[in-house]
């Protein structure tokens, strides 16, 4: 009896499967009708020509305002210049240039969005998916679509609107071009030679930054690190920041048995005290993080690491060469002094790609 019931259930299940596979509708399955496209609601600018004209004027005004802010950003770069002797002047320059660029982009974007939202046609469309090809019929249809889009957007027809958009968009990159022009100074045609010469010279004392206090060798203990500048830098009236950017040095003392010095450089250190440029050889960031246990220097910008025990060779990161070493000794009073200037250009490696600095 049980086998008959089981066989009946199997026959019922098979019948249901055949009904589904043959397309029969299961009365227990809920069906849905295609709702179709929603009703199109016309905008005020679609029904009222005067409103459309006023909107066009507003959008055009936004584009002209964008152009005005772009010009303001360029003018601000010259009206509020950066004073090398007063670093706080950067604030005003950055603020007004930034405001000009920001509002130029904001008004340009607002105008473009308003044009699309209120003036371009917004009728709902359904486009069936089909294979695309490069047949003549397809090319013809693409041309028709572009013409239709041009007609619906009013790009050709609304000349004042179009011209103001083009003017604002073309002017937008100009502040960047004006700012980037200062990356090259025509008066310094030989940057490698410029970076090769600093205030360091024979007998120039190493002093603390920023106080200018001379440093005795006995004050530099193992594991300590001093931020150092050349004596006389603080007394400069002009070019102080430029000279400091090239001459800043990090002074450290290591156990003498940890130093692995080359024969021709053993005289550059003094009883384990070594001095290296703080300017990273990657892009010029300050290398100011010293790990006294590993004797590694770390650049915080792009994580380049230098081994102080081996003439600050690069052990990690994108830096292209070791940090330049400043040869040092002591004077008759026990103060640390430089033996000479750096023997190579300081800063990013790309300065050395010019071979005519000698």
Offer a quick outline of the entry.
Its main location: membrane. This protein has helices at residues 2-21, 44-47, 49-79, 89-119, 136-153, 159-171, 174-180, 191-196, 240-247, and strands spanning 206-208, 225-230, 249-253, 273-277, 289-291, 296-298, 305-307, 313-316, 328-330, 336-338. It has 358 residues and is α+β, with helices and mostly antiparallel strands.
Write the layout of secondary structure elements.
Elements: H1 2-21, H2 44-47, H3 49-79, H4 89-119, H5 136-153, H6 159-171, H7 174-180, H8 191-196, E1 206-208, E2 225-230, H9 240-247, E3 249-253, E4 273-277, E5 289-291, E6 296-298, E7 305-307, E8 313-316, E9 328-330, E10 336-338
Antiparallel strand pairs: 1-2, 2-3, 3-4, 5-6, 6-7, 7-8, 9-10
Helix pairs in contact: 3-4, 3-6, 3-7
What does this structure look like?
The chain is an alpha+beta fold and 358 residues long. The protein folds into 2 domains: 44-123 and 139-183; 191-353, Rieske [2Fe-2S] iron-sulphur domain (Rieske Iron-sulfur Protein), CATH 2.102.10. The protein contains 9 helices and 10 strands. It has helices spanning 2-21, 44-47, 49-79, 89-119, 136-153, 159-171, 174-180, 191-196, 240-247, and strands at residues 206-208, 225-230, 249-253, 273-277, 289-291, 296-298, 305-307, 313-316, 328-330, 336-338. Helix 3 packs antiparallel against helix 4 (89-119), helix 3 (49-79) packs parallel to helix 6 (159-171) and helix 3 runs parallel beside helix 7 (174-180). It is elongated, with a radius of gyration of 36 Å. The N and C termini lie far apart (109 Å). 23% of the residues are buried.
């Amino acid at each position: 009896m049980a086998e008959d019931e089981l066989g009946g259930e199997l026959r019922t299940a098979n019948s249901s499967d055949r009904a589904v596979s043959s397309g029969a509708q299961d009365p227990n399955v809920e069906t849905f009708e295609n709702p179709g496209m929603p009703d199109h609601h016309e905008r005020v600018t679609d029904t009222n020509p005067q409103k459309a004209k006023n909107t066009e004027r507003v959008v055009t005004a936004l584009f002209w305002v964008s152009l005005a802010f772009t010009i303001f950003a360029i003018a601000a770069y010259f009206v509020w210049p950066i004073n090398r002797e007063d670093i706080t002047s950067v604030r005003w320059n950055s603020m007004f240039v930034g405001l000009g660029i920001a509002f130029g982009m904001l008004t340009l974007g607002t105008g473009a969005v308003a044009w699309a939202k209120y003036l371009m046609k917004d009728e709902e469309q359904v486009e069936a998916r089909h294979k695309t090809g490069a047949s003549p019929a397809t090319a013809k249809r693409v041309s028709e679509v572009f013409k239709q889009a041009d007609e619906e957007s009013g790009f050709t027809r609304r000349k004042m609107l179009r011209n103001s958009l083009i003017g604002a968009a073309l002017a937008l990159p100009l502040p960047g071009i004006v700012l980037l022009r200062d990356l090259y100074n025509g008066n310094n045609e030989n940057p490698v030679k410029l970076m090769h010469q600093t205030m360091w010279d024979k007998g120039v004392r190493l002093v603390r930054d920023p106080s200018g206090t001379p440093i005795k060798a006995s004050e530099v203990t193992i594991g300590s690190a001093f931020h150092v500048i050349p004596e006389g830098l603080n007394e400069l009236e002009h070019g102080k920041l430029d000279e400091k950017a090239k001459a800043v040095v990090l002074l450290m003392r290591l156990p003498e048995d940890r130093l692995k010095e080359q024969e021709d450089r053993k005289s550059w250190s003094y009883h384990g005290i070594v001095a290296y440029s703080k300017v990273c050889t990657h892009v010029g960031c300050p290398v100011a993080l010293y790990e006294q246990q590993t004797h590694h220097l770390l650049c915080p910008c792009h994580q380049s690491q230098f081994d102080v025990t081996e003439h600050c060779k690069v052990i990690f990161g994108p830096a292209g060469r070791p940090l330049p070493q400043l040869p040092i000794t002591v004077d008759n009073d026990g103060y640390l002094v430089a033996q000479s200037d750096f023997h190579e250009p300081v800063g990013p490696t790309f300065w050395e790609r010019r071979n005519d600095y000698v």
